[in-house]
What we know:
Helix content is 78%, strand content 0%.
Amino acid sequence: MNVLDSSIANVSxxxxxxxxxxxxxxxxxxxxxxxxxxxxxxxxxxxxxxRFGAVRLFTTSVLLFVLxxxxxxxxxxxxxxxxxxxxxxxxxxxxxxxSQTLLLSSYPRAKAGMALALWGVTTLVAPVVGxxxxxxxxxxxxxxWIFYIxxxxxxxxxxMTWTIYRHRETPTHKRPIDTVGxxxxxxxxGSLQLMLDKGKELDWFxxxxxxxxxxxxxxxxAVFLVxxxxxxxxxxDLRLFKGRNFAFGALTLSVAYGLFFGNVVLMPLWLQQWxxxxxxxAGMALAxxxxxxxxxxxxxxRKVAVWDPRRMATGAFVVFALVLWLRSQFTPQxxxxxxxxxxxxxxxxxxxxxxxxxxxTLAGIGPERIAAAAGLSNFTRITAGxxxxxxxxxxxxxRATLHHAHLTEALAQGHGVFGxxxxxxxxxxxxxxxxxxxxxxxxxxxxxxxxxxxxxYGSALIFLGLIGLIWxxxxxxxxxxxPAADAGGAH
Length: 491
């Protein structure tokens, strides 16, 4: 339900934006607000678990997720919907790590790896079900139902959890919380995300508001670093970055996830706005990504302790680069089959992406610090995903403006081609204004398609560049492979 909510809204953004009377780029705040709030609350899971107990916290988190989903569906304006998504992201933080904790407590150590591999498959079903379900609901019901659907599912999940686990609560004790560190975390991450989301709309650093947000983000981050490195009970244990594997592993994972998620959001926007796809058809074009991911994930879970995870991650990045290069060849004439092929191939890259990179990141970290390391790794990854979305959509619009200007200029210099085209359209029964609007729409379609191709191509090159970062890490020892692979299931 949690992972589904990060992908189900992707194909519904044009419908939400249209209903709220805002642009689709503003509509993507529905995705980024959830991601940022979720990232901020993940590091608090350890403290909350010790304070309230894993079973009580997980059940409460699910019930609050149901309530905030219901509020999102009722939101009458974009501002209230974003507020609902922020609350939803905040209460969702403990759900994924605690679902894994409770699962591990139910199985002997020998079966933990297979249990987590199956757990991982359920999270990979979301990229298949999310776009399909989101598209079908948007076309056949209305977009609020992408949130209402969580209500019966969440109530059932909470009831089942409480029935099975209520007599197996974990020990609780009071521990101080780093309120200053948490406030600084919210301040700098929130400011940076707002700057990225509103930059295009407010003309970037020509705006006092954007300049202020940038200064707050930079100063807040600097103070946050100093505070967290000196506090006795930091909300985020930044000392983990002293480890070579954690530093390069978390960096590679975060940048790669930001690229991946930015492109995942861009595809349905392009298909619906400029290729004439309905939300359902856009969902069908994106759904095959989960096929190979689901099939190959159990294999990766078994082999990650045997094979070199650096080689596995390198293979994943090469496949991601191939997929994005294929997408960079798209034109307005590209048919559904040629859109489906890269999507299908991408599933194989996803299977060899998360678990090996997490195994590398968590290798060599003591058992007492694994929870903190997994929390920090999740925080950087989810934050990068939200920022990747903002950067991808902003660059898309900027590149489209550039391509529109070039195409218009070329058409105007085409020795009367522009005038002839307008005359032909008028001869077909359109008024002069309609002919100009029709021609502008065609130029826009070309411009936005070329802009999407630019982002796909640039992302492919960055994926190839990231391969070098992987090889700065050390190969995990065979003895470390099993626990690290298990922790990797959390992604």
